[in-house]
Structure to design on (1792 residues):
């Protein structure tokens, strides 16, 4: 589905990614781990088109999307839950969800009710402005908003950050469920090793802008991974 | 005053009585003398002698269709035929050296008075009312007999009231009228109760009896009291009207600045473009389709919207889109654009004012109780309300409205949601500019259409948007109305200059109390 | 061949461009025409145009540039008084000549400036006299833009009216800011003031941009000239070109020139102007005539002095006569103001004026007789070599 | 620390009683009472939206409570003071969403936070003393950004900003530290390290920590307060509160 | 302490700037006074006056950059402080005219005689004294800024709201000063100056001295501004610009810091105005026009916001462009050129002339430091 092929990424003259390659399959969870500042977010930005790459190639469903604008990638089916939530602060919760209608055909413009089963708090706060929500509530909104677009590829950058344990478990179950539906590839950046290990089909570990370890979760040595993300 | 003693004679039914031919000769000589006092005298003579052609001649004179020269005096009919003024006979050829007999205000007043007398028995009720008004103003005693006849015959209630008031205006100043009638006249004037009635009452001559004077004094206090109330209402109306002008001027900015965050110094020029579009439309209509003139504004509206919106889109695509995330630089760029647009218009249309006319439905005024309401202001208020409503609906009820707000709040995230940010940006800026263009159509009705038009509204527009609270359309509405009404309530006391200074100080102080405007956004969301 | 440079200092952008741009054009036309006649003293003239952009410090800068850098022999320019005040020190310091073509508040007579527009006594007072006599006006509204020219004119008028027995309660004075555009309240106040049973008129010193909305409001509120006539001192053909004048029929203006004046000189000038602008609808106005007169006077003075040297030309100018376009001959006075007729016109439906009154030549007073501080002052650059000579004390230098 | 201030109303360092606040009718905090003793470290947990951050907003003067008492050091009424005054009393805060000065270098971020007199005159004529420089170096070492000291803070990754915020809090050297989700976005190893750091600090400071990471809370080993819907649901050692049915239901999940 | 304050953080760019000014301060007057007009190096008086004016604008621009570039206060009313300083100087110059005015009144300036005023209004007292007038040049703008800022900053008026009320302030002053009744000469303003501290204002030597004085004041203004922004206070102020509330939580009283910078800046603008008036020869209410203040903002943006030297450069470049464009064949079309210049600078020199030049220079010399990406835009 998604294939990131030896990409480079620069901020000004500083290089944040070096020949990073990652793939993600439909019906699978691909997990990216690594310490602070190793380039996980940069990789996600490159995938969704928020940051231009300076080398390599990104293809999605067989097509080269390296040059596509972010909005066209979204229309192609890539949804993004960014680190730091980035909900629209002055739009109500309902409106935040409705921004996900943009790439949808008219008849699909509704909020799937499963979302409210997953995040009941959102249902009770539909009229509240996104910016007024608590941190964890915003995180839930950001995930729900991404799902409204019915993506083929869901990019989650630390989705459990700031979320209460019970809901983390729910999110885990949700990701599991989404995988099981088999119509979506999921890329997950995560810091909780346990959480990642439980979900990941494939794992990529990064260090200083490079992928240093990768493979099917089942085949990786958990200790080695943990060592890499240790300080 | 013109003697109209025998005015009845002028009625076609009584056309037998004839004045002296010498007097008539004098009148025609005087009409040819090209002097205002001679013309005045001529009118008097024609009326006094009940010249059979008097009505026709005077009407022609009023319309500038009375020509004189080389001893001849000629009436040009409305359809362009030439008649001998004296006889009414058609002329075969135009006598040489004719020129229109000139008028000044003095002559015009006399004509009005004369026509007033002449029109009192006109079959058209509207004309009778107008004639009665003219008599009311001229207070010409000699019309009294005709007036009384007219009142006797009158069946139309409105016309009757007007005639009675005219009669009262004459009687009150007529020393030898029966005291009872004069007292009744005071009542009639009090009933009328407007500024003109007041003026007429005040003109009561010093000879009046004490009873009459008492009645007059009471009537005056009565009217003044009522007028004072009406005046407050009138000031509120003016405030509303000024507020709607401010709203129109600012509302486009509420989009480009309020919603998009572009410090749009070229906003005023968008208004200007709307006004010039109106000018061009009218120019084309004047030269090609004169019959459409009353529809000129309706035609101009969509065009002005389109022109301003397209220019707006061009500006957005050409310049502004490179500046998102750098709002302050939009100030620099749009300032530059505003200079360019001003000079472009100056080069294309010249530096001077251009004439934009008012269609019939926007001209003049009517009275609503004691309120004098001008049609153009009324329409502008209605128009402002419509524009506001439409815009609110677009922003709140349509998907594009939601996308606009999403894009401005977080452009990158919006694009990650699949929103075509470029298109939304262009449309939003186009919408704001287009609305400014609409404002231009309205403002062309009350202000200069010149290259400076935009400059004179830009500061006020920013004040309104900011005062109301940036990013809130309702704030812009309430802000505009508050400032408009405050301004108009202050003006009678402080004068226009100090009033404006006071208003600015008020804004400064108000912002201290509400540092984010009238309709401030509160809470975490704002800081986020 | 060496040319003689003439500076043109009129705003081509900014708020004053609306009025001043035509003055630049008329100067270019006059210079062109003079060159066709062979120039002056056998030399061709060359116009140097700059744009002071309605910005007063820029006026001073540009004046300096014209005189010091371009070495012009004379400058024709300025509209507002403040722009003139701003360039004055420059003309004095660098000793050059300015022809100033606009009516102004008076109270000035400078060696380097020649005032071809009207002084207050050449405009305001005759207009008031006309209204009092012809229209029997007894009550007066003095409405103006809040700055020096209207304030002064109104001061002069107030003193004058009072001297004619008008009572204080019969005078209403009202000021508005520059560019004032909402006239609803003021027009209705005027209406109210005018309904006291005495014939009322408005004397308007409203300036520039504010006029159009003012007249539009007058029209809409239905104030007819037959009810309350308005006589304006700053509204000419050009201003009216932007308004539908039908509702304004009969309102008045006082100037020293109207386009509608039928004299051979004027007709020729209008024809020339229309041809020059390639526009049949181009209008002429009073300050344009002032430049016509001023330019003719300068040419004659140069010819008389046989030199372009400012000192010589300044000395030659007083006494020079030049035909004005309304059928008389204007003369440069020792106080550097000129003689002009005063014309009162009523607005016609076609945006032109119908002249309803015309005086003989009136000599411009540099100092207003109605003001305490200046009633004893005269300007005399011929005998006394002084702009503010006190006839009481016999001394130069004011009081 | 200053429990014996004359006129003190309470011996607690921080004392909240009956505090409520609502936003447009929504009660975010209802009748919250809480006391922190000098030298105490307290962990606060609770569901998203329980009011943890709002509570810190109230303590630091960002939000004014509708009713209730908020006392510091026994006698200072915090509801009467503004943010700067409260900060100068010795209350420092790390925000949930890291907020640093993007256009200052990392070093300058620390310098600005460094304990010193905050008057106009002092800052205008400020000279960094050797002791100050050393302190900055130490902190940069602790937060592992020593190599990056000249980089602009805006160019840091999310996790690095978290560290920088912690560094700024250290530099302030406040009496009471309010730490909102310090471990969010950190790897397990870094989380453990943060816990160690906080324990170190808590030796001579009072600390309130908010976290959702139970491992981290366990590591701290201090008394835990559970907030729910704006008031205290449970209080006690972690093991005890984790066993609470309600806490499991609304927060921990199964 | 003071010297350290003034030289701290002085960079090469600042040194070059100071050196240029110092050289101008000495050489231009000499080249004007000593060299004969024909000489190649002679500086004509008109050129010198023109540059004197530009340099006054440069000082104004620096004062604005101090509040805007570093403290994030976009003042759209800085022209007011400039004009007030100018009026204070103008009042002094008016009083120096003495009985040489057109009406010859030894006490009252001409416009007062002309309006039949019988005595000098109280607020004109003292202005015949040069030291007093100079004190007022600082005190009047400073006090206004202080009072205005005191309220506005305490009420936490920020961003566009602050910008708009500064604009309202200057607009209100514009209208007030237009009124003849205010006693400042109405629209015609203060003009017809004769002498400054006993020297003829028109004299070439006086002009030369004024020019030097302007350079000196610009140097002083620059040193003070530089000193402020490179002190720790400067860092606080930048922190306030980028994250005001965060700064508060660190214990800084944001309102006081803003007030300090705003007041200093207003005084500086006042000095600029005071130097401007004798060189231009007139002060009139249009100096209060909101458009003037906006233009000042534009100079700063053109030159490079937050660089001080850039602000000065921007003022000179824009005004020089104006001088050039408003003459010759360009005169009717110069607004096109100026407008295009502004658009060009925004699009192609996002950091202003100086910022862009600097980037270019740095890129040539060494790889740049990473800068924050577009995402965290500085707060306005
Ligand atoms: N300004 C506001 N307007 C409306 N609701 C608000 C506002 N501020 C906070 N809230 C609501 O108050 C509740 C408490 O929020 P708070 O941020 O304190 O929660 P929290 O305990 O910190 O949650 P989290 O663990 O998710 O960070 C939330 O439901 C939030 O939506
Ligand atoms: N906008 C930016 N400008 C310059 N450098 C940046 C920018 N954003 C990130 N970097 C740098 O790029 C590198 C990778 O950052 P990135 O945000 O991708 O890290 P991360 O792996 O997501 O870290 P974290 O776990 O802290 O979120 C870091 O060194 C960071 O400092
Ligand atoms: N001189 C004038 N009209 O300002
Ligand atoms: Mg990251
Ligand atoms: Mg929180």
């Amino acid at each position: 589905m998604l294939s990131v092929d030896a990409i480079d990424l620069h901020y000004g003259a500083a290089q944040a990614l070096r020949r990073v390659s990652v793939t993600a399959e439909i019906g699978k969870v691909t997990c990216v781990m690594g310490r602070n500042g190793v380039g996980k977010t940069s990789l996600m930005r490159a995938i969704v088109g928020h940051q231009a790459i300076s080398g390599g190639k990104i293809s999605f469903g067989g097509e080269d999307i390296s040059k596509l604008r972010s909005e066209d990638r979204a229309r192609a089916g890539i949804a993004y839950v960014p680190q730091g939530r980035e909900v629209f602060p002055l739009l109500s919760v309902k409106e935040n969800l409705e921004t996900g209608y943009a790439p949808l055909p008219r008849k699909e413009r509704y909020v799937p009710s499963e979302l409210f089963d997953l995040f009941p708090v959102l249902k009770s706060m539909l009229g509240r402005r996104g910016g007024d929500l608590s941190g964890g509530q915003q995180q839930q909104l950001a995930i729900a908003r991404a799902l409204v677009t019915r993506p083929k590829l869901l990019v989650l950058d630390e989705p459990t950050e700031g979320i209460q344990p019970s809901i983390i478990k729910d999110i885990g179950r949700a990701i599991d469920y989404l995988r099981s539906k088999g119509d979506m590839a999921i890329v997950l950046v995560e810091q909780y090793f346990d959480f990642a290990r439980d979900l990941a089909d494939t794992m990529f570990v990064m260090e200083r802008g490079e992928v240093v370890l990768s493979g099917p979760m089942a085949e990786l040595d958990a200790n080695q991974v943990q060592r890499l993300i240790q300080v | 005053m013109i003697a109209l003693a025998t005015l009845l004679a002028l009625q076609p039914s009584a056309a037998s009585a004839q004045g002296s031919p010498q007097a008539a000769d004098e009148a025609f000589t005087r009409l040819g003398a090209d002097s205002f006092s001679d013309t005045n005298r001529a009118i008097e003579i024609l009326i006094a002698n009940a010249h059979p052609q008097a009505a026709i001649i005077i009407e022609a004179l009023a319309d500038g269709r009375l020509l004189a020269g080389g001893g001849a005096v000629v009436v040009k009919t409305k359809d362009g035929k030439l008649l001998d003024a004296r006889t009414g006979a058609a002329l075969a050829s135009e006598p040489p050296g004719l020129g229109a007999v000139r008028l000044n205000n003095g002559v015009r007043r006399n004509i009005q008075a004369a026509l007033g007398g002449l029109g009192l028995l006109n079959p058209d009720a509207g004309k009778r009312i107008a004639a009665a008004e003219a008599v009311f103003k001229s207070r010409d005693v000699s019309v009294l007999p005709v007036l009384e006849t007219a009142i006797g015959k009158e069946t139309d209630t409105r016309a009757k009231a007007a005639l009675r008031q005219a009669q009262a205006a004459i009687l009150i100043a007529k020393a030898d009228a029966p005291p009872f009638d004069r007292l009744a006249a005071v009542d009639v004037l009090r009933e009328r109760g407007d500024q003109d009635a007041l003026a007429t009452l005040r003109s009561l001559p010093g000879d009046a009896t004490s009873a009459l004077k008492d009645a007059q004094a009471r009537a005056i206090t009565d009217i003044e009291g009522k007028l004072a109330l009406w005046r407050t209402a009138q000031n509120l109306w003016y405030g509303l009207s000024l507020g709607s002008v401010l709203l129109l001027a600012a509302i486009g900015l509420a989009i480009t600045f309020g919603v998009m965050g572009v410090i749009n110094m070229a906003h005023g020029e968008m208004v200007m473009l709307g006004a010039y579009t109106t000018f061009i439309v009218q120019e084309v209509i004047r030269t090609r389709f004169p019959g459409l003139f009353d529809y000129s504004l309706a035609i101009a509206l969509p065009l002005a919207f389109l022109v301003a919106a397209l220019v707006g889109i061009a500006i957005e695509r050409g310049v502004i889109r490179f500046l998102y995330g750098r709002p302050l630089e939009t100030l620099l760029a749009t300032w530059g654009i505003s200079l360019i647009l001003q000079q472009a218009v100056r080069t294309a249309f010249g530096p001077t004012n251009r004439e934009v006319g008012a269609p019939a439905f926007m001209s003049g005024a009517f009275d609503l109780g004691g309120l004098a309401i001008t049609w153009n202001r009324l329409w502008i208020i209605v128009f402002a309300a419509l524009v506001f409503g439409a815009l609110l609906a677009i922003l709140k009820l349509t998907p594009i409205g939601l996308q606009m707000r999403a894009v401005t709040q977080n452009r990158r995230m919006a694009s990650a949601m699949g929103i075509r940010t470029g298109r939304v940006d262009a449309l939003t800026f186009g919408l704001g500019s287009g609305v400014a263009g609409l404002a231009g159509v309205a403002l062309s009705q009350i202000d200069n259409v010149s290259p400076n038009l935009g400059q004179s509204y830009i500061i006020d527009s920013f004040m309104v948007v900011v005062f109301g609270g940036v990013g809130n359309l309702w704030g812009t509405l309430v802000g505009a109305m508050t400032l408009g009404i405050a301004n108009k309530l202050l003006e009678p006391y402080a004068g226009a200059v100090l009033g404006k200074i006071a208003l600015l100080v008020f804004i400064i102080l108000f912002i201290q109390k509400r540092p984010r405007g009238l309709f401030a956004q509160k809470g975490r969301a704002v800081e986020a | 061949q060496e040319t003689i440079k003439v500076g043109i200092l009129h705003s081509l952008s900014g708020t004053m461009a609306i009025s001043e741009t035509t003055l630049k054009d008329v100067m270019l036309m006059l210079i062109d025409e003079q060159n066709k006649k062979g120039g002056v003293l056998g030399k061709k003239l060359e116009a140097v145009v700059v744009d002071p952009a309605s910005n007063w410090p820029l006026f001073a800068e540009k004046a300096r540039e014209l005189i010091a850098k371009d070495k012009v022999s004379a400058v024709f320019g300025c509209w507002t008084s403040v722009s003139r005040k701003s360039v004055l020190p420059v003309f004095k310091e660098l000793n050059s000549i300015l022809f100033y073509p606009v009516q102004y508040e008076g109270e000035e007579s400078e060696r380097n400036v020649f005032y071809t527009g009207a002084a207050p006594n050449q405009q305001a007072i005759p207009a008031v006299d006309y209204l009092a006599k012809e229209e029997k006006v007894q009550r007066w509204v003095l409405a103006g833009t809040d700055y020096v020219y209207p304030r002064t004119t109104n001061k002069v008028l107030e003193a004058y009216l009072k001297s004619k027995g008008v009572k204080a309660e019969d005078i209403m004075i009202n000021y508005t800011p520059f560019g004032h555009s909402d006239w609803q309240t003021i027009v209705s106040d005027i209406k109210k003031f005018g309904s006291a049973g005495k014939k009322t008129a408005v004397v308007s010193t409203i300036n520039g941009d504010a006029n159009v909305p003012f007249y539009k409001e007058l029209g809409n509120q239905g104030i007819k000239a037959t009810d309350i006539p308005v006589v304006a001192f700053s509204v000419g053909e050009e201003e009216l070109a932007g308004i539908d004048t039908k509702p304004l029929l009969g309102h008045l203006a006082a100037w020293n020139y109207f386009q509608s004046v039928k004299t051979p000189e004027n007709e020729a000038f209008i024809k020339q102007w229309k041809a020059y602008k390639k526009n049949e609808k181009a209008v002429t106005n009073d300050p344009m005539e002032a430049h016509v007169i001023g330019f003719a006077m300068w040419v004659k003075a140069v010819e008389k002095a046989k030199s372009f040297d400012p000192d010589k030309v300044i000395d030659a100018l007083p006494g020079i006569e030049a035909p004005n376009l309304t059928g008389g001959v204007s003369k440069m006075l020792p106080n550097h103001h000129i003689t002009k007729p005063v014309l009162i016109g009523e607005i016609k439906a076609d945006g032109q004026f119908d002249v309803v009154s015309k005086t003989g030549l009136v000599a411009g007073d540099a100092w207003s007789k109605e003001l305490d501080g200046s009633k004893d002052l005269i300007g005399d650059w011929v005998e006394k070599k002084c702009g503010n000579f006190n006839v009481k004390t016999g001394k130069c230098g004011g009081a | 620390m200053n429990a014996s201030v004359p006129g003190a109303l309470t011996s607690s360092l921080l004392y909240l009683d009956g505090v409520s606040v609502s936003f447009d009718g929504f009660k975010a905090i209802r009748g919250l009472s809480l006391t922190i003793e000098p030298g105490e470290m307290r962990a606060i947990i609770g569901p998203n939206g329980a009011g943890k951050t709002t509570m810190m907003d109230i303590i630091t003067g960002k939000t004014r409570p509708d009713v209730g008492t908020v006392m510091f050091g026994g006698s200072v009424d915090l509801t009467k003071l503004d943010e700067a005054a409260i900060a100068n009393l010795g209350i420092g805060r790390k925000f949930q969403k890291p907020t640093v000065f993007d256009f200052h270098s990392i070093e300058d971020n620390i310098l600005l936070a460094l304990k010193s007199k905050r008057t106009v005159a002092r800052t205008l004529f400020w000279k960094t003393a050797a002791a100050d420089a050393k302190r900055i170096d130490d902190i940069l070492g602790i937060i592992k950004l020593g190599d990056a000291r000249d980089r602009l803070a805006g160019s840091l990754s999310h996790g690095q900003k978290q560290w920088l915020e912690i560094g700024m809090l250290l530099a302030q050297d406040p009496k009471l530290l309010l730490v909102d989700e310090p471990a969010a976005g950190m790897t397990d190893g870094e989380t453990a390290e943060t816990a160690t750091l906080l324990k170190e600090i808590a030796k001579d400071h009072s600390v309130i920590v908010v976290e959702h990471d139970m491992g981290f809370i366990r590591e701290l080993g201090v008394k835990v307060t559970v907030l729910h819907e704006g008031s205290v649901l449970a209080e006690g050692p972690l093991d005890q509160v984790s066993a609470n049915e309600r806490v499991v239901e609304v927060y921990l999940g199964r | 302490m003071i010297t350290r304050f003034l030289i701290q953080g002085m960079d090469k760019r600042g040194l070059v700037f100071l050196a240029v000014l110092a050289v101008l301060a000495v050489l231009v007057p000499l080249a004007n006074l000593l060299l004969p007009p024909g000489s190649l190096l002679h500086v004509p008086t008109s050129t010198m006056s023109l540059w004197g004016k530009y340099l006054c604008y440069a000082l104004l621009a620096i004062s604005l950059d101090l509040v805007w570039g570093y403290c994030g206060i976009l003042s759209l009313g800085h022209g007011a402080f400039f004009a007030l300083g100018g009026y204070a100087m103008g009042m002094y110059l008016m009083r120096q005219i003495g009985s040489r005015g057109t009406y010859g009144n030894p006490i009252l300036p001409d416009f007062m005689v002309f309006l039949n005023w019988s005595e000098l209004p109280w607020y004109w007292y003292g202005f015949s004294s040069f030291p007093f007038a100079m004190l007022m040049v600082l005190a009047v703008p400073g006090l206004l800024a202080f009072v205005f800022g005191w309220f506005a900053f305490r009420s936490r008026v920020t961003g566009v709201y602050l910008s708009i009320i500064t604009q309202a302030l200057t607009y209100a002053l514009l209208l007030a000063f237009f009124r003849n009744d205010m006693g400042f000469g109405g629209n015609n303003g203060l003009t017809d100056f004769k002498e400054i501290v006993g020297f003829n204002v028109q004299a070439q030597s006086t002009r030369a001295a004024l020019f030097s004085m302007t350079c000196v004041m610009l140097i002083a203004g620059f040193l003070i501004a530089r000193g402020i922004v490179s002190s720790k206070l400067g860092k606080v102020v930048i922190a306030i610009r980028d994250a005001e509330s965060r700064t508060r939580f660190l214990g800084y009283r944001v309102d006081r810091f803003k007030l300090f910078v705003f007041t200093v800046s207003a005084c500086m603008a006042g000095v600029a105005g005071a130097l401007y008036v004798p060189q231009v020869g007139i002060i009139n209410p249009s100096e209060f026009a909101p458009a003037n203040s906006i233009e000042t903002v534009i100079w700063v943006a053109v030159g490079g916001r937050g660089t001080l030297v850039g602000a000065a450069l921007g003022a000179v470049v824009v005004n020089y462009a104006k001088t050039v464009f408003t003459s010759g064949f360009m005169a009717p079309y110069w607004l096109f050129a100026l407008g295009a210049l502004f658009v060009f600078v925004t699009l192609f020199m996002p950091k202003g002339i100086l910022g862009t030049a600097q980037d270019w220079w740095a890129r040539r010399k060494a790889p740049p430091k990473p800068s924050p990406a577009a995402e965290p835009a500085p707060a306005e």
Chain D has ten helices and ten strands. Strands of chain D lie at 14-23, 26-36, 41-45, 67-72, 76-77, 91-94, 176-180, 206-210, 223-228, 231-236. The longest helix of chain D spans residues 158-172. The radius of gyration of chain D is 18 Å.
